[in-house]
From TrEMBL, chain A:
It comes from Wenxinia saemankumensis. Part of a binding-protein-dependent transport system for a sugar. Its main location: periplasm. One of its GO terms (cellular component) is periplasmic space. The keyword Signal applies. This is Probable sugar-binding periplasmic protein. SUPFAM superfamilies: Periplasmic binding protein-like II (SSF53850). Belongs to the bacterial solute-binding protein 1 family. Keywords: Signal, Transport. Pfam families: SBP_bac_1 (PF01547). It is found in: Periplasm. The keyword Iron-sulfur does not apply. It comes from the Bacteria.
Automatic annotation (TrEMBL), chain B:
Pfam families: BPD_transp_1. Keywords: Cell membrane, Membrane, Transmembrane, Transmembrane helix, Transport. It comes from Wenxinia saemankumensis. It is found in: Cell membrane. SUPFAM superfamilies: MetI-like. This is Carbohydrate ABC transporter membrane protein 1, CUT1 family.
Amino acid sequence: MKLTTKMLGATAIVAASATAANAVEMEVMHWWTSGGEAAAVAQFAEALNNNTDNTWLDGAIAGGGDVARPVMVSRIIGGDPPAAFQFNHGRQAEELVEAGLLLDLTDVAEEQNWAEIINPPSLLEACTYDGRVYCAPVNIHSWQWMWLSNAAFETAGVEVPQSWTEFVETVPALEEAGITPLAMGGQAWQQNGSFGVMAIALAGEEAWLAVNRDKDAEVARGPEYARVFEAFGAARDYSAGLQVQDWNQATNAVIEDTAAAQIMGDWAQGEFALAGEVAGEDYSCLPGLGEVAVLDTGGDAFFFPVTGDPEMEAAQKELAALLLSPEVQVAFNSAKGSLPIRGDVDLTTVNECTQKGLDLLAAGQTLPSGNELLSPDTITQLNDLMTQFWNDTSMTPADVQEQYAQIIESAS
Amino acid sequence: MAIADTTATDDRVADRPASAKKPMRLFRNLMPKLALTPMALTAVVVFLGGTIWTVVYSFTSSGLLPRLDWVGLEQYDRLWSTTKWIVSIQNLALYGFLSLIFTLVIGFTLAAMLDRKIRGEAVFRTIFLYPFALSFIVTGLVWQWILNPDYGVQGVVRSLGWESFTFNPLNNPDIVMYGLLIAGLWQGTGLIMCIMLAGLRGIDEDIWKATRVDGIGTVKTYVQVIIPMMRPVFVTSVVLIASGIIKLYDLVVAQTSGGPGISSEVPAKYVMTAMFGGQNLGQGFAASSMMLLGVVIILVPWAFLEFGGRKKRV
């Protein structure tokens, strides 16, 4: 009797779960917690809840990627994977794919024709391992920008420069007017990121690709890069007057016109917008430092762990397709201030600077991001080296160039 | 000692012919042994097992995931040729040395002063112990603001009229470790003071009476009589301070995040960055194995002297 009741109960549970077959609760892990980011991720949640039977369970982890990634990885290895998780474009998930822990999305990619719609194509390449697609890219962020305060140059009595070369010429006038020429935060990634921007702008695309993609240490030791390191050393002097830690504090110095310029990714534009500044009037932007007009295309992508549950798998593939759909792309990227990963959609609000970025994307003037070409290990080493150089004035550009070349030589 | 006890009981049991059956040694004191089993298992599996696992994997090329792909001493080679690691070790040595000395000296001095039966002792004790209730993260942030040149100490003194006053440790690579040390001492001395105070209270009142009769000065009594009597208290304090030094991490992350540049990096932070920022578990394991080795080299001879010696005395 007792056994029968138990069996009846079990059958009821099975039946209940069978009737709810199409409604899966999908836990999505990400590290988007700031105001704009949270608003953007809410667009995803809304799209999932409205367009499918599945529900979005928000698994936000505060503290940024370095905090969130280990949590996600341990959940996946520990056998309790989320339905989907965010990583940056690039090589961060390489090992998870090799270990067979991530869902193959190739059929979705083929069905949705990702090869055609994703622009630049390098984003899909970054998701592809051995010919199979493992992630859904959702946005593009680029480092290749310099932000300039128009008022600061006016105070110094010089024209707003149109390139790095012109900027260097205005430095003495700026310093005389008591303005810090270049704002730079104290964190290592900011210094290494700025170096990457200067390398593309001053050494050119070809040399940059030779070093970052082909790991050619000879080019890293060569004259093109010597020029970059000289300029980077000069930039160190330009920034000496300002002591701030976070990137947004440095951006704030440009907004308040106490600093003239900052090399920072397009996410800085959110700060200008928040302060009520208008592109073209209050601030200017130079993609590629005005030297080499090209954008690197970093950003975020979603990966889907293997769960072994066919219902979950169907829901994951549904979500992957949804993330790339035109409406969701527009809603998400408008809220986040990033660029959409497909060229056939129009953002709702576009200012002068975003338009410059979109034009470059449309013209195919793009490069893969450092994250896609270098392993996280190498990036950590470069962060350490650049921040050491930036803070130790006894280190010469020649010293740092040699050490840089050694790291590139040993990089995989 | 344990063996001596057992034989003694065994003799008594043998003397009593009524209890014919000799109880098995394994089951003697069964309840305490049962109660200890979970902790013993945890110690063996989690601590010892985890340690061995870490050391073994430090000889592999593990990246994001641990894998048994042997590379010999490659991770250690790279570790010792990395400037950041060398700087970390130097910083920890400096911080450790100064922190140990100053915590003991300040902690003992405060405790001795409170022990002089001053008015409002409870108030002072609370004030001194209060920072210990704050986490290192909060401590680090608070001192980051206090030492901020624009808003903190330097800003206040300058606004009072001393325009040339400069006190900006967190932005000066040469003295940034002292900025950390101030915060560390502020947080940690209260606890040591309390332990010392408990030790001082444990000193018999008669000792003081005897020294007064002999006409020995207060300071001399403290240094030559009281401190030697408080040896166990000092040992406890040193163990507490030392473990705090080795795991120094969150204070650095909150206060300087290793900067300016790499001038306030510490080994624990190197491990965390390598493992979770750089997705290079092998390198992180190698660094943590070196930390363990350092602890073992310092701790084993000391523990041998301290605890091995006492057993002989008994």
